[in-house]
Amino acid sequence: MELPRCPGQDPRYWKPEDVFEVACPHCKAEIEFFKDEPFLRCRSCGKEARNPKLDLACAEWCQMADKCLGRDSTSPDETTSICECLIVRMKAVFGSDRRRIDHALKVLSFADKMLESEHADRLTVKAAAILHDIGILEAERKHGSTAGRFQEEEGPPIAREIMRKLEIDPDTIDHVSRIVGSHHSAKDIDTAEFRIVRDADWLANIPEDHAGATREQLTHIIDRVFRTKTGRRLAEQSDWLAASKTE
């Protein structure tokens, strides 16, 4: 059973004033903030601007805030701040679609675990994990389908625009966009960051997509699809594999 979304973090309950413009403290250009974005980079001068009206609502005191927001509370650095902003934007795109929000956060959680053992650029991995399915609603709207090829077609432009507004560096934007545009087909990319995000997506999807599969069937899937040692290890140690039945 899917849990209801926390009203304190649901944009459906936001008021018009929860999205606002603030003058950059460095150059006075206007910057658009969502109320729970800690910081943004000014598109005019490129310097960091903090949100003077930051409002995390219930996340300021709730003991489940880190899980709800998908935070990496152990690394309060710029990457974490950027990813918090990406999560806000991702949630705004998906709106009331809690299933897809939860999936993105689950893929991010698996990617975080894999980064403990795999060598890769943290921001690229985490941003791609958050945004990998960002084109799915546009695919439904334009093509009447959530097929992987339509997600890969519609996702990169949306991901690029989100990252551009956060002033993420162009090389990272290009890399993340390539991952978003290939996370189903695995075409034209095989970087360490891509392999982590793809494996994290499989870890999140297998229990649902292959419910009822036997242990032999799941073992075959693991042998066939996983591209990192850590992803394979997490799959082999998973509850869903342990609970599966032999033929």
How would you describe this protein?
By secondary structure, the protein is mainly alpha-helical. It folds into two domains: 1-69, no CATH class; 78-212, Orthogonal Bundle (Hypothetical protein af1432). It has helices at 65-69, 78-94, 98-115, 122-131, 136-143, 148-165, 170-180, 192-209, 215-225, 229-236, 239-242; strands spanning 19-23, 30-34, 39-41, 48-50. The strands form two sheets. A two-stranded antiparallel ribbon has the order 1-2. Strands 3-4 form a two-stranded antiparallel ribbon. Strand 3 and strand 4 form a beta hairpin. Helix 3 (98-115) packs across helix 8 (192-209), helix 5 packs across helix 6 and helix 6 (148-165) packs antiparallel against helix 7 (170-180). The longest helix has 18 residues, at 98-115. It is globular and about 65 Å long. Residues 72-76 have low confidence and may be disordered.
